[in-house]
Amino acid sequence: MVGWVIIVLVVLFLAVILWLLLATITLTVDTTTNEYSIVWFGFFQGRLQLVGEKIYVIVRAPFFNKRFDLEQKILKEITDAQKPDTTIKETAPKPKHSSGKFMRKKLRKNWLRIIKSFQVRRFRMNIDTDNFITNSLLFPITYFAQMRGYQVGINYMGMQSVSLVIQNRL
User: Fold this and answer.
1) Element (H or E) spanning 20, and its range?
2) From the CB of residue 58, how many other CB atoms can be counted at a distance below 10 Å?
3) CA distance 147 to 141
4) What is the predicted pLDDT for the residue at 10?
5) Are 55 and 49 within 8 A, CB to CB?
């Protein structure tokens, strides 16, 4: 009886791990609405929020919700790195381990397959270079991009925007 309970728990644990590995990852960049986020199948969400001159990072996961100031965090890390270390530590050199060597070989072998797993779901771009001649030279490029299904436009009104949604499913 106890053996069956352990087997069921192990199977459930492996099913949850497999679900987490196969869950969809979505990256969203939209400059018109200032939305920059990455979502891992609703389980994990990271978002950049622009408020005036400040940039906040919002991280959400089950039972976890955190918002912190990105500029303050970076400045704190820089000042911590610049402080001199007053303690002198003498340690013997550690032997090099090859524990990551297997993963590096596997990544190098499958990197093309990983890149191909990304799909562009939406791509919209509106360009203005503030130069009439350069704008007119970009028209053939936008024509070929529109033939591939991307919405790329050139305007002469000074508006620039990008809307990009990328999904990854391994």
Assistant:
1) helix 2-22
2) 14
3) 10
4) 81
5) yes
Name residue 31's amino acid: T
Main-chain dihedrals φ then ψ at residue 92, nearest 5 degrees: -75, 145
Q: Tens of pLDDT along 17-58? A: 777 667 788 888 898 888 888 888 777 888 888 887 888 888
What is the C-alpha separation between 38 and 102, in angstroms, rounded? 28
User: Does pTM surpass 0.70?
Assistant: no
Q: Counting runs of H as helices and runs of E as strands, what totals does the chain give?
A: 5, 8
| Dihedral sign computed on CA atoms, order 38, 42, 46, 47 | positive
User: How far apart are the C-alpha atoms of 70 and 36, rounded to whole Å?
Assistant: 14
Split at pLDDT 50, 70, 90, the class of 83 is low
**Stretch 59-71: mean pLDDT, rounded?**
86
Q: State the DSSP H helix or E strand holding residue 141, giving kind and residue range, or none if neither.
A: helix 139-147
Q: In degrees rounded to 5, what are phi and psi of residue 88?
A: -105, 120
123-152 core/surface letters (b: 16 or more CB in 10 A; e: else): bebbbbeeeeeebeebeeebeebeeeeeeb
Residue 97 — left, alpha, or beta (φ > 0 → left; ψ -120 to 50 → alpha)?
A: beta
Strand partners of residue 152? 125
Residues in the chain: 170
